[in-house]
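Batch job 17 of 40 flagged for manual review because the log was empty.
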Amino acid sequence: MKAKLPPQNANNSVNFKIESLGKATYDSPFTYADNKDDYSANFVSEKDQTLYNTFLFEDSTRDDSQILNEDNRMERAGPREKLFFKPEQVTAGICTCGGLCPGLNNVIRALVRNLMLGYHVRKVWGFQFGYRGLVPDAPEPPISLDPDLVDDIQAKGGTILGSARGSGERTAEIVDTLIHYRINILFVIGGDGSQKGALAINNEAKKRGYKLAVVGIPKTIDNDFSFISRSFGFETAVGRAVEAVNAAHVEAKGAYNGVGLVKVMGRDSGFIAAQTALASQEANFVLVPEVPFDLDGPNGLLKQIEKRLSRKNHLVIIIAEGAGEELMSRELGIIEATDAGGNKIMHDIGIFLRSKIVAYLKNLGLESSVRYIDPSYMIRASAANSNDSIFCARLGANAVHAAMAGKTGMLVSQWNGVYVHVPIELATRKRAQINPQSSLWRDVIESTLQPITMLNEVK
């Protein structure tokens, strides 16, 4: 029997085909007529693709037709020899949406410099405070961006455009604003909800017959986009989280029965918590949304904490913000409220756990010192580290190349070490999460030596 890629169905099909505004006819400015073979751009052909699934089967069961089929090919990113837009006729817009993240300024800088210095685009608008800057009652007018204005912003955290949640559902008004400013290209730097808003903008412009290229740069510090192996700012976030874990470890080890709690970002996906544990090698327990746990009972977290303290007199716990939400909802009640971006407002797992641990140890008559550290806003406001800075520069450059070629309704991604284009609809269909049976989670278990499960009854 021949092995096959995972079967697809009508509701879960994978189609990497990228939408285009039309035929590209203009020459790229990166082509030098007098010296075309030397020092000119290494253009990417529309036929250049890379494999999504590179898994190779054993020779006896391998089926090359399945490995190389259409649904397993991703369009490669990079400069095209022919452009859809004539550069001097382009007016571009940029907005940063959602929460802060390391690298936002780096991406803005890369976009502006590649547009204006690379393609000689004459006008770039920066819309302030996310989609709120694109509606009639915008809190602030757009900023005219240029290479001088963005010259050194890469060294700073945050975003010079400001960022906010909400207003993305006001699609018709946003497109009205884009038409008013004669925007041909819109770059949306944002997360899952923001990119869904970008897709709606793309569809509304298409419905009106307005030629608008909408290109997203995925911004999710949780690293939870599908078909995107790494999002910018994630590596910086892990590095800063490790600093918090180191502090928690020092505090815990310096006290008798010391417990250090560190909460990191991760509403639905625990990638930061898992990678921080592997980077620090100082965590004894890692709690993530994908792996449920009990507090009480013979195999619950509190009993495991008691056992650890009896052996070592100190411990460190890394908690993703979305861990234990079902447990807290049962005990504290379900929260119905959402924020401006439509995200559910959650209980604070760090405060909840601290109170439970303190009460449990006190009931046992054990002296203890419990320290809770939440470095989330310090991490979000950090400047990007060197690797993230490089990554942001390349994401920005490839986003500009795609837009100038008339690509739309897409994100720039890196997959299997190659920069690629991914349809927004596909990338936002489902959040990426840790598979509890994966090698990543196995390595976390081996690093922390925590039980494989902290449930009293395994379903």
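Reviewer: the log was empty due to a logging misconfiguration, but the result itself is present. The longest helix spans residues 234-253. Unflagging and moving on to job 18.
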